[in-house]
Protein 1
Amino acid sequence: MPGARRGALLLSASVLLLAVVVLSLTVGARAINPLNALAALFDPDAPDAEVIRSLRVPRTVVGLVVGAGLAVAGVIMQALTRNPLADPRILGVSAGASLGVVLAMSVFGLSLLTQYVWFGIAGALVAGMAGYLVAARSRDGASPVTLALAGAALDASIGGAVYAILAASATTFDGYRFWVAGSLAGRTPQIALQVAPFLIAGLLLAAWLARGLDALVLGGDMAAGLGHKVARVRLAGAFAVALLTGAAVAAAGPIGFIGLAIPHLARALVGGAHRWILALSLILGPVMLLSADVIGRVVLPTGEVPAGIVTAVIGAPLLIVLVRRARLVAA
């Protein structure tokens, strides 16, 4: 695909993202004129400044970084495992974040998201790297199959521990059920600042991995023949997934389908070069998450639907369409 067409797609996606950001700032229980929203960004005394500055800007910023993190992590996981159905949960990262949050609530009695977000990030990093190390110590090393198997086993075992803790503590369950639905509501600037360094580090690592991911898709032997250090690329990829997913899940809960569907959509639009897939996913991930959040605000006359539920409703049909399109192309 010509570079000019790919550049045009990136530009179009950026314009779409800008439009979704405007909707995120203006749509909700109180509709706000876009011009008033723009004025509120620069003038704390402008009409609706309190709503824009304290509620919708932090919510939008968290949506931007979480959507980008989940989408890019999905691209890396699908390349590492050579599995089109892989998503960031494969290494047990989401389950690790859940265990960290549950332990923060049950053992340390923490109830605020700004307090237990660190436990979610730590749990995700420990689980992700544990999954990689278990796979690396197998006979075949950290191959796509062993990564998937080790991650699935870790996800199941950690999930069992989470449910055991929740069954023993009704108080922990009450706090956990609001987080696990996956939502951007109530997120503060402090949360965005807490997770941003981890997400930025993961995104930079993903950009560095782009050429290595292109080679890994061809197979480990082929990648090694092309001069890539396969073990280093896989380790760096696993660490990037742990950083991106851990920070995203800790901040917004285990939101699904973004890491699974967006890489397929980006690949269908720009081809198989990972530098382009990563760049487009970086934009389309926030588009999907913020769109889901906006829909969740208005779909019910009373209350909101968490963004994690809306992404599942949107993502499932999108994934089916992409799979059917891929089969038609292959035929």
Protein 2
Amino acid sequence: MRYIRYAILAAIAIVLVSVALANRAIVTLTLLPEALEELAGWNVSAELPLFLVILGGVAAGLLIGFVWEWIREHKHRAEKARQEAEAKRLHRELRRAKVKGEEADDVLALVDKKAG
């Protein structure tokens, strides 16, 4: 199983390196279109290799997806925590009831001895 994982990671690495080598051209990224840049009065742009733009977009998408899923699953994690707390409370209550039951049995045994 470990070797399969390494083979998959190696294949992904080969694909990423080939994409990086094939897309080395420099591109200009701008935050706003030209018309909005003139209205805003400021220009934010950067020149990067195309493969960084591609891989950055993939990384940003993964990060957004992970955060979105973590937020979406919050209700399930909260419910699980509530159920675990309830189970602990019930276990403590059961232990207390068993201890009280054992004490009562000892007292009854003593009373039965004296009566008999």
Protein 3
Amino acid sequence: MMMQNSKFNKQNPWIVGITGASGAPYAVRLLEVLKAAAICPHLVVSAAGERVIAEETGLTMGQLAEGCVLYDQQDVGGAIASGSFPATGMIIIPCSMHTVAAVAHGLADNLLTRAADVTLKEGRPLIVVPRETPFNLIHLENLVGLARAGARVVPAMPAFYHGPEKMQDLIDFVIGKVLDQAGIDHQLFRRWGL
């Protein structure tokens, strides 16, 4: 585990899980925005997530985790595995259908899925950002199961009403919607009617 930077607010950590679905730029941007808001991300990344980060962004885990508290996914005894860890909530971005299925069915077999299970158990916000298309019936039923358990499902579906001009604008829209669900203020996109 890496040391936490003292500039971060220690009272409101968010757990961020990154899995092997395509969409690593969303995760990178979320971490940037959280750190800029003085919220220290407690980060856990699946093995497939590490691969996708490298392939889609060119970042190493060291570069990605700078300024975060990093956990090994196989360390099921990591601090974020306990309900006594004072997390505000957890965001899984991007969230693979494998992880959706595991969390929807309570299969807490690694630190990422255990942290998600604990987040639901403690009644804290769990925000999942699936990045898959098309969804099959199994995917949809698992997403419904998560929603019934209290998770917020925020698919990585950018909008166009705010007049995006570059890819970063599309990424920022999705991250803004995630932050809305987390109750974190942002100015990442122009809101409808404003």
Protein 4
Amino acid sequence: MQESHPVRKIIHVDMDAFYASVEQMDNPALQGKPVAVGGNEIRGVVAAASYEARKFGVRSALSGALAKKYCPDLIFVKPRFDRYKEISNKIRKIFHDYTDMVEPLSLDEAYLDVTLNKKGNPSASLIAQEIRLRIFNEVGLTASAGISVNKFIAKVASDINKPNGQKTIAPSAILVFLEELPIRKFYGVGKVTTEKMYQLGIFTGLDLKNKSAEFLEKHFGKSGHFYYNVVRGIHNSEVKSDRITKSVAAEHTFDENLTSEIFMVERLLIIAEQLEKRLKKYNIAGKTVTLKIKYSDFTQQARSKTLPYFISDKALLFETTKELLYQERMKNSVRLLGISLNNLNTETKKMVAVQLKFDF
């Protein structure tokens, strides 16, 4: 690792099957049963699956129909994002009892920099253990954690002992850990990239480490530089407690495909109202409106328009989106519509979203 950069104590906390676990906690009748949040046996996609459902191969982004085929006893539950956010806020309050250096990635996971912490505890592992225990006692859910010197390794480590476990990768163990790690478990290496690496003879971290920077950049572009560094334990991205919001969106998947623009306009008005609520809540406005269309054959299309001024009002969002809708004829029936707002005022003002010897 590069000695010119300080070694930090980073914890990555990841809630276990968060949405599904919240549903099981709130409804005891669902406990111990295979649960899918989102979708149904006819259409839609799974947003989250309980561990009981995962045993059958049910995963997020899987179609509801296929999920039901994999697990005939699967129970579908409608998502309650307000409830998930409520629980997430309770968990983040616990994080802030230990450090203000908290970078949320989503409602169910976050990075914490505890190099200097409010408890004066020199052990990041003990802090992670205490946080997980508090989440269980005060919220009623289990969490897993990864602990190491940077965000990349902490993120990878949090998946090792899931669910309800933690894994510490001390500085002296980092290189061996990464060399032995299957390439598919490297954070940032998705399914397509994994297959490409397999074709190039890269199956483990050691295989990756044996490739030159030139080789990796030739085959993976800018990502090649990232792969070259992280397999050597080099990842200098800091935990950023003030994250800048770059996009706000709302979308809806319909129970029946829409075949007429008239019906689509009706739905877009509702989506615009939902988006306005989110924008007003955080005092966000933007200039670029994007209409997202997903057709019945699962192909996607995006149409955008940039205005000369910031907007957040539902009427302006709706009128701009309606204009984009009629820009060209639909090529098929539509199963999903969404509106997003980019080029936000958060790019000019920050919005709160969110070698040393260590005792790990």
